[in-house]
C-alpha cells in the first residue's frame, strides 16, 4: 500500500490535473480534500473537452474509486450538473465509483450572493474571488452554523438551519448590501431535491479510506489551488478560504498523518497567478504575453487571463518546506521553447536586505525586487521527447538548476498537453 499527496507549489493552475491523471493508473482511490468549485480541471471524454470543478479527475479511469472529502465545500447543483454532463458524454458515474462525504459543507444561494456583494464593495481592493460562495461557506463552517451534506437528507434539520441562517443573511443582504433577500421555501425545495438525488453517493469517506488502506489499496490525495493560496501560509489576504498545503489532506479526508508516504509538488516551468496580490516575477511585457498565449493561460473556472512571470525559487522553496515535498513534477516546459534567455528568481531585494525566503505579508512582498539567474533558452521542439537524456542540453541545465536550488529530485517532466507527452524519470507509485 502507498499513499501520495499531490499539491501545487505556486499560486495554483500548475497542471495538477494532468499529473493526477497520469498517476491514477497506479492507484485504486483518488481523493479531493479541500476547496470547492472555484478550482477547475479539464477532462477529455470521447474526444470532447469538459471542465470539471468538484469530481476528481481520476473519474475517467475505470476501476478507480473517487472521493470528495469532508474538507471540500460542495455546491450540490454544480456536482449534479457534472454527473449529468459525464453521463451525456458517455461516461456515467455510479455510487460505486464516487462517494461524497456526509460531513462536507454545502454552498447555499446566500453564500454566492454574499461573495459577489462583498467583492463588488471592495472596489480596487478586490481579492479576485470567483464569486462561487466558497469563502462565505467556510465562514459558516468555522462559525458552526454551516449546513452539511447529511442535513440535505433530513428535511427537518435542513428547514431549521436554513430558517435560522436566513435571519442573519437576509438582514445583511437587504440592509447592508441593498440586495434582494432569499426566500426560505424556495431554498428548501431546491436543496431537499438535491439531497434526494445525491443520497446514493453519500457516505463516510474517512471510514472507507481507512478500509481501503487496511486492504492494501493505493490512495492519491488531490489538492486544489496552490500552496501560496493557503489561508494560513499563503500571501494573505490574497488567498483562498481553505488550507491548500499537504498537511490538510489528512484533516480534509479523515485519515491519520502516519498513513501518508509521499508528497509530490507540481510546478510550472514559469509562474502564473490569477486575481490580485503581489507577484514579484510578473512579466508585464511581450514575453509575458507570449507565455500566456502559448500556455493558454486563462482560468478554467472564470476564463480570466492569468498573470505570467518567471519561475521564482523563493516561492518554490517555501512550498518545499511547508509541504514536506519528496518529489517534484515540472509542467509546461514546452511553453518556454524559443525564448532566447530564461530567468529564475533566486532571492529578493527588499528595503536594503537580501531575502532568500518568501515574506508572505502582502505589503512587504509587494516591495520585493527579484534577483535573477539567467539561463540560455532552446529552440528545439520538446513534445516528441520521452527520455530526459534526449532533451536539449540547455533544457536539462534549466531543469538541473531547479533540482539543485530546491534540493528535491525531479520525477516527472511534462513536455506537452497530452497524457503521453511526459517524461517519467522515476516511478513514484
TrEMBL record:
Record's keyword annotation contains NAD: no
Catalysed reactions, semicolon-separated: IMP + L-aspartate + GTP = N(6)-(1,2-dicarboxyethyl)-AMP + GDP + phosphate + 2 H(+)
CDD domains: AdSS
Ligand binding (substrate): 300-306
GO molecular function annotations of the record: adenylosuccinate synthase activity; GTP binding; magnesium ion binding
Broad enzyme group: ligase
Active site (record annotation): 13 (proton acceptor), 41 (proton donor), 141
GO cellular component, one term: cytoplasm
A Pfam family the protein falls into: Adenylsucc_synt
Pathway info: Purine metabolism; AMP biosynthesis via de novo pathway; AMP from IMP: step 1/2
Binding positions (GTP): 12-18, 40-42, 306, 332-334, 414-416
Cofactor comment text: Binds 1 Mg(2+) ion per subunit.
Keyword Magnesium: yes
UniProt cofactor(s): Mg(2+)
InterPro entries reported for this sequence: Adenylosuccin_syn_GTP-bd (IPR018220), Adenylosuccin_syn_Lys_AS (IPR033128), Adenylosuccinate_synth_dom1 (IPR042109), Adenylosuccinate_synth_dom2 (IPR042110), Adenylosuccinate_synth_dom3 (IPR042111), Adenylosuccinate_synthetase (IPR001114), P-loop_NTPase (IPR027417)
GO biological process: 'de novo' AMP biosynthetic process; IMP metabolic process
Residues holding IMP: 13-16, 38-41, 130, 144, 225, 240, 304
Record keywords, A-Z: Cytoplasm, GTP-binding, Ligase, Magnesium, Metal-binding, Nucleotide-binding, Purine biosynthesis
Binding site residues for Mg(2+): 13, 40
EC number of the protein: 6.3.4.4
Protein purpose: Plays an important role in the de novo pathway of purine nucleotide biosynthesis. Catalyzes the first committed step in the biosynthesis of AMP from IMP.
Family per similarity comment: Belongs to the adenylosuccinate synthetase family.
Assembly mode: Homodimer.
Protein name in UniProt: Adenylosuccinate synthetase
Originating organism: Desulfoglaeba alkanexedens ALDC
Amino acid at each position: 500500500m502507498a499513499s501520495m499527496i499531490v499539491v501545487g507549489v505556486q499560486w495554483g493552475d500548475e497542471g495538477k490535473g494532468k499529473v493526477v491523471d497520469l498517476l491514477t493508473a497506479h492507484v485504486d482511490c483518488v481523493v479531493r480534500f479541500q476547496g470547492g468549485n472555484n478550482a477547475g480541471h479539464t477532462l477529455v471524454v470521447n474526444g470532447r473537452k469538459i471542465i470539471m470543478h468538484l469530481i476528481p479527475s481520476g473519474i475517467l479511469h475505470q476501476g478507480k474509486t473517487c472521493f470528495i472529502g469532508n474538507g471540500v465545500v460542495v455546491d450540490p447543483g454544480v456536482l449534479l450538473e457534472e454527473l449529468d454532463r459525464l453521463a451525456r458524454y458517455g461516461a456515467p458515474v455510479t455510487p460505486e465509483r464516487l462517494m461524497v462525504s456526509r460531513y462536507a459543507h454545502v454552498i447555499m444561494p446566500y453564500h454566492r450572493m454574499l461573495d459577489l456583494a462583498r467583492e463588488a464593495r471592495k472596489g480596487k481592493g478586490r481579492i479576485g474571488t470567483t464569486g462561487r460562495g466558497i469563502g462565505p461557506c467556510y465562514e459558516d463552517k468555522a462559525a458552526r452554523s454551516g449546513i452539511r451534506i447529511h442535513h440535505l437528507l433530513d428535511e427537518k434539520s435542513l428547514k431549521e438551519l436554513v430558517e435560522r441562517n436566513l435571519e442573519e443573511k437576509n438582514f445583511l443582504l437587504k440592509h447592508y448590501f441593498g440586495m434582494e433577500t432569499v426566500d426560505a421555501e424556495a431554498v428548501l425545495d431546491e436543496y431537499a431535491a438535491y439531497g434526494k438525488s445525491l443520497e446514493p453517493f453519500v457516505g463516510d469517506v474517512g471510514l472507507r479510506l481507512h478500509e481501503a488502506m487496511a486492504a492494501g489499496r493505493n490512495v492519491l490525495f488531490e489538492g486544489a489551488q496552490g500552496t501560496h493560496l493557503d489561508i494560513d501560509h499563503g500571501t494573505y489576504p490574497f488567498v483562498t478560504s481553505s488550507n491548500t498545503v499537504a498537511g490538510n489532506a489528512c484533516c480534509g479526508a479523515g485519515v491519520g498523518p502516519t498513513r501518508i508516504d509521499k508528497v509530490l509538488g507540481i510546478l510550472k516551468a514559469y509562474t502564473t497567478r490569477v486575481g490580485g496580490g503581489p507577484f514579484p516575477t510578473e512579466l508585464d511585457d511581450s514575453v509575458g504575453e507570449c507565455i500566456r498565449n502559448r500556455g493558454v493561460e486563462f482560468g478554467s473556472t472564470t476564463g480570466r487571463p492569468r498573470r505570467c512571470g518567471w519561475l521564482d525559487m523563493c516561492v518554490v522553496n517555501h512550498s518545499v518546506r511547508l509541504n514536506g515535498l519528496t518529489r517534484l513534477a515540472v509542467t509546461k516546459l514546452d511553453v518556454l521553447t524559443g525564448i532566447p534567455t530564461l530567468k529564475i528568481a533566486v532571492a529578493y531585494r527588499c528595503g536594503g536586505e537580501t531575502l532568500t525566503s518568501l515574506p508572505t505579508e502582502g505589503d512587504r512582498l509587494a516591495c520585493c525586487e527579484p534577483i535573477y539567474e539567467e539561463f540560455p533558452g532552446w529552440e528545439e521542439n520538446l513534445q516528441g521527447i520521452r527520455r530526459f537524456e534526449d532533451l536539449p542540453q540547455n533544457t536539462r541545465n534549466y531543469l538541473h538548476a531547479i533540482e539543485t536550488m530546491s534540493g528535491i529530485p525531479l520525477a516527472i517532466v511534462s513536455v506537452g498537453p497530452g497524457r503521453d507527452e511526459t517524461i517519467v524519470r522515476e516511478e513514484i507509485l
